[in-house]
Write a structure and sequence with these properties.
The complex is a heterodimer of chains A (564) and B (844). Chain A is α+β, with helices and mostly antiparallel strands and 564 residues long. Chain A has five domains: 128 residues, no CATH class; 63 residues, no CATH class; 134 residues, DNA Polymerase III, subunit A, domain 2 (DNA Polymerase III, Chain A, domain 2), CATH 3.10.150; 74 residues, Arc Repressor Mutant, subunit A, CATH 1.10.10.10; 93 residues, no CATH class. Chain A has 13 helices and 27 strands. In chain A, the strands form six sheets. An eight-stranded antiparallel beta sheet of chain A has the order 9-5-6-7-19-18-17-12, with helices on both faces. A five-stranded mixed beta sheet of chain A has the order 2-3-10-4-8. In chain A, strands 23, 24, 25, 26 and 27 form a five-stranded antiparallel beta sheet that branches. In chain A, a hairpin with a 5-residue loop joins strand 23 and strand 24. The longest helix of chain A is centred in the first third of the chain and has 47 residues. In chain B, a hairpin with a 6-residue loop joins strand 10 and strand 11. Chain B is 61% helix and 6% strand. The relative contact order of chain B is 0.02. In chain B, helix 15 runs antiparallel to helix 16. A five-stranded antiparallel beta sheet of chain B has the order 4-3-2-1-5, with helices on one face. Chain B has a two-stranded antiparallel ribbon with strand order 6-7. With 844 residues, chain B is α+β, with helices and mostly antiparallel strands. Classes of the chains: A alpha+beta (564), B alpha+beta (844). Chains A and B meet through helix 1 and helix 6 of A and helix 44 of B.
């Protein structure tokens, strides 16, 4: 999809001797959200924005090297070798050696002669890259002004990392004015360079303003326009993150030095062979160990990182190099919360900087973006049927409150907590809201400019057409409809929610035994199954048809109980 | 060399006579004409010898001998038999006879041909073709009638015969009918361009219009285009054939028709191109079968199209045509053969396979170029040539000239030039090179385009021949400007380089001609523009005032217009900057120059800026801020001009250096270097204060930071070190952090306050991911040193080291732990992560 950005000015940071003006130009095609204030701790903000920029520009996908030149060279060497076989006489060989030496000398002279040209050409390429990169490839972050904080959200270039920088109002020494809303900000590479010039000894003004920083030029246009072909997967990924964040995930609390130790190891070691996972060894009541594969190097985290879960677990996560984007936060971090969804599933790192909270969401592995067909986190979530009217009323309530817990919103809408959670889940999925993992609240955030309409509400809650359902969903429904689900045990768990065991007759006629744990919100926390699909993929490709069918059985039972 | 003439007398006692020309052995350089005659070919007498004749009179004497024999009743051998065949009841026999009679060129056969035409059989096209070849006006009426036929074979023969008969009226009517037969879109496309316009644009337009026609009618449209025979229509017809599939059901018949037309018309280039095309397509195409209407009899039937039989027939037909030319039109053979060879490309060479070399399956190529060799044998089934097995112990004899009909090539050396210019195949070019070396005068007749084409030949000697010819043709005192222009406009760099050489040699002439100067300065090729500009600039030193003024005005007019392509103004700009600055400064005021700088092309901007530097009042009128803005301009020449102006204002810059600090942060290295130089040598930074030093160090650019460090160290004794350290410690760049650390270690004020302020700095240094061991050790040692001084400093040091001691790096851990222990032992009451050793002591 082509997304248009139009900025009246450009974002810029102007540093004088005594003051610094940080001005973020906002997209004039969107609602007029603005914020004006003075930063109390510019260094903290600088480091957080630098980390955000590192995430935005990061691309950890595997890019094979261009070996054309090498292959040509190899071929030339082969030819040379074959030619040398045909040369019989010593004199001829000597002549060849002399000629080759002479040719090498000439090549060197030619290279020396052309050196300035090569240098100039490289500088030109750099210049073009620097200027075109920003206009064509850098996806501008989304900024939202709320009554309690200003937050920036962005995705990496490889679409495998999500970052959210939430700046609480305590960060600001003085707040002059603000208007809540969501918009894009002009975020350039040049701006990133200027960010590094923020200092405490300069009073730092922080303005989010449509006008930005306008440079008057003779007859030139002062506005800046970008048209970025935003990949569909980027948008889906943005929404998928919130599906993941609302999952019941295993939480660990790390000291910043733990994160440093992990990153330090990653910086100094590069695995040349698989496996390349980072394995979290969790044992109740003991400090967490992180094992770096393939060296099996165990890093024991600080004593504060005691796992308080009910049972021993081992969770492997991939794409660990992406953690390096947090490097600049370590010196200023106070604590780090890690949320793990499961083996090969996404993980979240919430870095607490005091007045700033920085969330880094990583997909299961780098080449596995958030929506590339193999990630089906929304299958793990549980939703009750919600009508368009109920969705609209939840949306209105969230928009009015800007941020609230699901319980508070349920009280406002009189829909009941379960229903409200489901409605919020739908709103997150269509980009009308988001879940703040650090704060534990839902927030109103319009990802796109189009206003929320009844039509959209109807479309959002409309059951997926059979063609849109995944094969597992279709199979699960089919199994449930044919009465192939038998719940053998169902008991509440201490953390809320249920643990359900069942016997499910699959589409191939074989009976298997899935076990499912859902949290109080109805999300799948844990699932196992004796089928071949689960044995092979676990939950990395979403739940299997048997787990889906068992969940449908559980939801049906819940509805019956609610009705009773 | 006069060929052997065989004659036949159906009535005489001697029915056979053979006339030959032989060298007179007694008188070298003279020739004898021998006439051998007898009742039949096997019983010839020794004959009569005429001569010896000198070479210049040989042809005349030979003609006289033939005339006398004709008076006796001798006619060309075979003519009588063919005339008798014309009255055969079989159309096939009549057609064969008519074709042969056409080639013989003996107009006595015309009445017999006309009489044979009365049969109105399938032999009629062959009869009309023969009449056309004979060129006798008695055939016009029949040709006109046939040209108006609907059936393709008859119409083709009629039209081409009219063309050979030079019947302007009949041809005009035929062309009118052909135009009417063209689809409307094609006719419209043709009408939009001149008939002689063979530019790519025009040809493409016509080809595109053909593509809009129904696929079944495209072939006919192409044939009709070729029938029109204008340069544009012929080029479009061939381009259309090249773009389409020659072997397709509805195309092949018309491709064949164009092929036959080319042979009738004597269009050797088209003949060679299609002959090669057929061979190339035949390597992959296996043919098809389709229901199509015959062009010969108009009957629709299932016809095998482009099957192997057809392919082989057409390939053989090409060589048969060449043989006919060699026998009956010997002067045309080398040219047709040259075009047939030239159509082959290097990619036609196939991989070597046993006795088959890379050209073994290139039939026409092999026949023409190796037909005289005895080393090859032809395999008819595969249409391929393979090396004959030599007898054991007999090495193959070396062969000098293996081409077919070598004597004909020698008689028309111009054909070598044609081949040399057009061929890209090394073997063919080598053959042509040898020919040209034997007939060097042939190069003199080559056109400029041909000689230029030779420069791209895949043969060093060919390139050498072409270069030598170009050198011969070029006279620096009276240059052939058309040649120079052609060289400069060539797409190949090496050819343009030669053109530039000629341009330099003739510089004295053309640099005085303003029109020519403007043309070369605006050349499409950048290197030509550069060379031309250099020559013009060099010539301007001696030029008179009026010439300089005129040139300045003309260049100014060009620079005022938008640049048609990027860089098009560069040549003009260089001359303006380096040679005409004074003249331009006289005619342009500062406002006009600033307009040039702000709105002109990059080249014009450079000119504007450099001329501004020559205006004494420019600095005053523009003011320093605008000049500073120019110093940040994208165009290097503008920046250079701005710096040049700034150099003349150094005293005021030194008095108020704020502008220099802006320039020190310029995006451009040259401007930054200028600012550094001035700041270093002319400005006393003390007058600005600490902010100046910190401002430079705060930069994001490594070179500015380096300069900042340099001036800080230079003036260190005069600076407020405490404040400097506090500020520099916030810099995020590692080099600046290292610099700050050195200052901290050496000069941080005593006491808790100064240390506590830098807690964040110490953390940043210690938790940096880069392996800067020395830096970290320095921080740890410093914290230990200060932590041991007093309790409050110990608290700060313990806090930082307490976090750092948990790092999983042995040396860092040991250093931090040792420091922590020392501090703890000195100040036990300070809270620390390290507890005194005990039973369960150690790191908590």
């Amino acid at each position: 999809m082509i997304v248009e950005f139009k900025y009246a000015g450009q974002s810029a940071i102007t540093s004088g001797l005594r003051s610094t003006d940080v001005r973020f130009a906002t997209n004039t095609l969107r609602e007029a959200a603005f914020f004006k204030g003075t930063l109390g701790n510019p260094l903290l903000f600088r480091e957080a924005l630098a980390a955000l920029y590192d995430v935005v520009v990061s691309d950890y996908k595997y890019h094979p090297r261009d070996r054309l030149a090498f292959k040509a060279w190899m071929e030339a060497q082969d030819q040379k070798f074959l030619a040398s076989l045909a040369v019989q006489g010593a004199a001829a060989r000597q002549k060849i050696v002399e000629l080759e030496a002479r040719r090498d000398e000439l090549d060197r002279h030619r290279y020396d002669r052309l050196k300035p040209f090569y240098k100039a050409r490289q500088q030109y390429f750099d210049w073009v890259y620097y200027h075109q990169y920003e206009l064509n490839y850098l996806f501008d972050p989304v900024i939202t002004v709320h009554p309690d904080q200003v937050f920036f959200e962005a995705f990496s270039r490889d679409e495998s990392s999500y970052a959210r920088l939430g700046a609480k109002y305590d960060l600001f020494e003085k707040i002059d004015a603000f208007e809540c809303g969501t918009t894009n900000i002009d975020f350039s590479a040049k701006l990133h360079g200027e960010l590094d010039r923020m200092r405490t000894y300069r009073r730092t003004r922080f303005d989010i303003d449509p006008s930005g920083f306008t440079v008057a030029t003779d007859g030139g246009a002062t506005h800046k326009e970008k048209k970025i072909d935003l990949p569909e997967s980027w948008v889906k990924g943005f929404l998928q993150v919130h599906s993941t964040m609302s999952l019941g995930m295993t939480r660990l609390r790390l000291d910043p030095v733990d994160l440093y130790n992990l990153m330090r190891f990653l910086k100094r070691h590069r695995a040349k062979a698989s496996p390349r996972a980072m394995r979290w060894e969790l044992e109740p009541g003991k400090p967490v160990k992180v094992v770096m594969e393939p060296w099996e190097n165990a890093i024991e985290l600080s004593p504060a990182t005691v796992f308080d879960g009910p049972k021993k677990a081992s969770i492997r996560t991939w794409g660990r190099d992406r953690l390096l984007t947090l490097a600049r936060l370590i010196p200023v971090a106070q604590k780090v919360d890690v949320y793990l969804a499961g083996m090969g599933l996404p993980s979240m790192y919430v870095v607490d900087l005091g007045e700033i909270s920085f969330t880094l969401g990583l997909s299961g592995w780098t080449d596995n973006d958030w929506t590339s067909g193999t990630q089906k986190f929304d299958l793990l979530t549980r939703r009750l049927p919600v009508s368009a009217v109920e969705l609209t009323s939840t949306y209105e309530a969230l928009k009015k409150a800007r941020y609230a817990t699901d319980v508070a919103l349920s009280a406002e809408t009189n829909l009941g907590v379960e229903k409200t959670r489901s409605a919020l889940s739908y709103l997150c999925q269509i980009g009308r809201g988001m879940f703040d993992l650090g704060g534990g609240v839902f927030r109103h955030r319009e990802l796109f400019n189009e206003p929320f309409t009844v039509k959209e509400a109807v479309a959002a809650v409309k059951p997926a057409a059979p063609s849109q359902l995944t094969s597992e969903e279709k199979a699960g429904e089919s199994i449930f409809a044919s009465g192939g689900v038998l719940i053998t045990a169902r008991r509440p768990v201490s953390t809320g929610g249920y643990k359900i065991s069942g016997s499910v007759k699959g589409t191939n006629g074989q009976r298997v035994r899935p076990v499912l744990t859902v949290d109080a919100a109805g999300h799948i926390v844990e699932a196992t199954c004796s089928c071949a699909f689960f044995t092979k993929y676990g939950l990395t490709k979403g739940p299997c048809e048997h787990v889906m069918a068992l969940r449908l059985g559980h939801m049906s039972r819940l509805e019956q109980e609610d009705g009773a | 060399m006069i060929p052997i003439v065989r004659l036949f007398n159906p009535k005489g006692p001697d029915r056979v006579a053979i006339v030959t020309v032989q060298a007179a052995w007694a008188q070298p350089g003279s020739w004898n004409v021998q006439v051998a005659r007898g009742p039949r070919r096997a019983k010839l007498s020794a004959g009569v010898m005429y001569g010896p004749f000198a070479a210049h009179e040989l042809l005349q004497r030979h003609g006289e001998v033939l005339t006398s024999l004709r008076h006796e009743g001798f006619v060309r051998a075979g003519l009588t038999a063919m005339l008798q065949s014309l009255v055969s009841s079989q159309p096939k026999v009549r057609a064969h006879a008519a074709t042969r009679l056409g080639w013989y060129g003996d107009t006595t056969a015309v009445p017999a041909l006309l009489a044979a035409a009365d049969h109105q059989g399938t032999d009629l096209p062959a009869i009309v073709d023969a009449l056309g070849r004979l060129g006798d006006v008695r055939g016009v009426e029949l040709a006109r009638a046939e040209a108006s036929r609907k059936l393709l074979s008859r119409r083709r023969s009629g039209v081409e015969a009219l063309r050979n008969l030079n019947d302007a009226q009949g041809l005009s009517e035929a062309m009118q009918r052909a135009e009417e037969r063209l689809p409307v879109s094609v006719r419209a496309a043709l009408a939009q361009h001149a008939a002689t316009d063979t530019s790519t644009t025009a040809v493409n337009a016509v080809v595109q219009s053909v593509k809009t026609v129904d696929a079944k009618d495209q072939g006919l449209a192409l044939d009709t285009l070729y029938e029109l025979a204008t340069p544009l229509s012929v080029a479009a017809a061939l381009a259309g054939l090249a773009a389409g599939n020659l072997a397709a059901a509805y195309t092949w018949r018309y491709a064949k028709s164009i092929y036959k037309r080319a042979m009738l018309r004597g269009d050797h280039a088209t003949f060679g191109w299609i002959a090669h095309r057929i061979e190339k397509v035949a390597r992959k195409a296996r043919g098809t079968t389709a229901n199509v209407k015959s062009g010969l009899d108009g009957v629709q039937r299932a016809t095998r199209i482009f099957h192997k039989g057809t392919q082989d027939f057409m390939r053989r037909m090409a060589w048969r045509h060449l043989v006919q030319l060699a026998r009956h039109r010997p002067e045309a053979y080398p040219h047709a053969a040259a075009h047939a060879l030239a159509a082959y490309q290097p990619d036609d060479a196939l991989p070597l396979k046993g006795a088959y070399d890379e050209w073994a399956r290139s039939y026409v190529f092999h026949r023409v170029l190796r037909g005289g060799s005895k080393r090859w044998e032809f395999i008819a089934r595969t249409m391929a040539f393979r090396v004959k097995a030599s007898k054991k112990g007999h090495a193959p004899q070396p062969e000098t000239n293996t081409a077919s009909y070598p004597e004909l090539w020698e008689q028309s050396p111009g054909a070598y030039v044609t081949l040399l210019a057009a061929s890209k195949v090394a073997d063919a070019v080598a053959f042509a090179v040898e020919g040209v070396k034997r007939h060097p005068e042939a190069m003199h007749g080559a056109s400029h385009a041909q000689v230029l084409a030779m420069l791209g030949a895949p043969h060093a000697e060919a390139v050498g021949l072409a270069s030598a010819e170009l050198e011969r043709r070029f006279d620096a005192h009276n240059p052939d400007w058309a040649l120079v222009d052609a060289l400069l406009a060539d797409a190949r760099p090496e050819v343009r380089t030669l053109g530039q050489k000629f341009l330099s040699l003739a510089a004295d002439l053309w640099t005085r001609d303003v029109d020519r100067v403007m043309r070369y300065l605006g050349a499409a090729d950048a290197s030509v523009r550069t060379v031309a500009a250099g020559l013009v600039v060099a010539s301007l030193d001696d030029a008179d005032v009026w010439h300089r003024r005129e040139l300045a005005e003309r260049i100014l007019a060009v620079l005022a217009t938008p640049e048609p392509t990027p860089g098009a103004h560069e040549g003009f700009a260089r001359v303006a900057r380096d040679g005409l600055g004074r003249e331009l400064a006289e005619v342009l005021d500062v406002t006009e120059l600033m307009t040039m700088v702000s709105k002109g092309s990059p080249a014009a901007q450079a000119v504007g800026a450099s001329v501004l530097g020559l205006k004494p009042d420019a600095i005053e009128l523009l003011g320093l801020p605008r000049i500073a803005a120019m110093a940040n301009h994208d165009v290097a020449a503008v920046r250079e001009a701005a710096r040049s102006m700034l150099r003349s204002t150094l005293p005021s810059l030194a008095a108020d250096p704020s502008l220099l600090f802006t320039l020190a942060e310029s995006e451009w290295a040259d401007t930054r270097t200028f600012a550094f130089d001035v700041l270093r040598e002319r400005v006393d930074l003390q007058t600005v204060g600490l902010d100046a030093y910190v401002g430079l160090c705060d930069s994001n650019r490594a070179d500015v930071q380096q300069f900042g460090r340099e001036v800080v160290l230079r003036d260190f004794d005069r600076l407020d070190v405490g404040e400097l350290i506090a500020r520099l410690s916030q810099h995020p760049a590692p080099p600046m952090r290292r610099f700050a650390l050195d200052l901290v270690v050496g000069h941080l004020k005593e006491g808790f306050v100064a240390l506590a302020k830098l807690e964040g700095f110490f953390r940043t240094a210690l938790f940096d991911l880069w392996p800067s061991r020395n830096e970290k050790r320095a921080v740890v040692e410093f914290l230990e040193k200060r932590g041991l001084r007093d309790e409050r400093q110990a608290e700060v040091a313990s806090r930082v080291l307490g976090d750092f001691v948990r790092v999983k790096a042995r040396r860092d851990f040991e250093n931090a732990l040792e420091a922590l222990v020392r501090i703890k032992l000195t100040f036990p009451e300070v809270e620390s992560r390290v507890a005194p050793a005990g039973a369960a002591g150690g790191v908590a």
